[in-house]
Amino acid sequence: MIHTSPRPWYKSKRFLIGFSFFVFILGGITCLILLALVHPALAEDVVKNSSYSISKLSLSPVSTKSASISITGEFNAGRTGDITFTKPVVFSVDQVDVGSVELDPINVENDKGAVDDQDKTLDIANSTALGGLVHKILTDKEVEVTGTSVVTVYVIGISRAGIGMTSPFKINGADNFASSTATASVTNTNITVTLTLQNPSSLSLSLTSISFDLSYNSAVISSLNSTSPVSISANSPTTVSLAGNLASGAAADDFKAKLAGGSVPAVLTTTSGVADGKGADWVNAGVTGINIAVTISKK
């Protein structure tokens, strides 16, 4: 009779199955531990160094404490993920809060996410700061507003809440409506001007009226008022019809003579802007004091 040695315990089927199960469980626990360590960094990477490029920004006064706002743009993130704002985004300029907006969630793919026509309410924190922001957008080439909030980020199948976000919101400016043009006609002391505002900025603003001082050789020769409502549209030219009276004096006479000859360089300076809605003082502050250099041609 031949006796065979018993199979070692570590080669038994029961042991191999049990050991495989143990390795599987251990591997799963290790993955969970690694994920718990790595996931916070992955989630924070979605909003870390993020920025918004605003292509369209429409503002309209509603009350002394709020304005309607519409935002279109692109969110540039650190990695793919979904972002949900759990607190309103507070906008500030030079560390002064302007107001806050509750933004919709953003789906980020390939490090970019769309912000499409989000029609919201801006809760105004400081109307003076809001007027200053509007003025800055209309006079500078680019404006950067800081947005702060708290978000929940969903990445690789897991949500992480309570992540602080501080991101720049970049807005194209109008640069004093550079390259704007105008035509004019003068009858006795009456002057009519058709101004074509070139607006490369992201801002849209509707006005019931707007007023300008017309200057030639550093002398104000007329105060002009719009003859109809004005809608300044983002990334588009806007035609403004103006009328007024020429002042008497050598500067006005020289202006008339040069205009009769074909064209004359001048400066139009906004002196007021009126918008529908309560609490529109920030609109007036925003549009006042803009110097628009134009060459005025004869109609």
From TrEMBL:
Domain of life the protein comes from: Eukaryota
Xref: SUPFAM superfamilies: LEA14-like
One Pfam family of this chain: DUF3712
InterPro entries in UniProt: DUF3712, Tag1
Entry protein name: 6250_t:CDS:1
GO cellular component: fungal-type vacuole membrane
